[in-house]
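Example record used in the benchmark description.
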Amino acid sequence: MERLISFDSKALLEDELAQRIAEILRSEIDQKGTATILLSGGSTPKNLYQKLGEIDLDWSKVHVGLVDERFVSQDSPYSNETLIRESLMSAHAKHAHFHSMVIDPSNHEENLNLAAYENRIFEKPDVIVLGMGDD
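Model output (structure tokens):
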């Protein structure tokens, strides 16, 4: 059974997705005490992240991570972490716990160990947002 949901605009799609994601996060917090979400970088989901971050929920119980990252420092304009911090985590979601993938940009091997440890909480994420934009 195919199911196609269409929206009249990208903004309406983002509004609906933000609300649905927030519902899942709230439900997981109610059931487990915490929730996890993994996000893609890039410009396509940026407005979605801003809208999601403006929703009032107990963000202090939400762990945020990335599905992908470039091996660059956080001050790089190519950093997905910086994008997430500036879009999602600028309003209510500023209280969420962010888990980096690039912890030691000077050492690939050490970074892999540090990132694996830092991101162990995402073994079974509650929400994953994958991107398919031009970038």
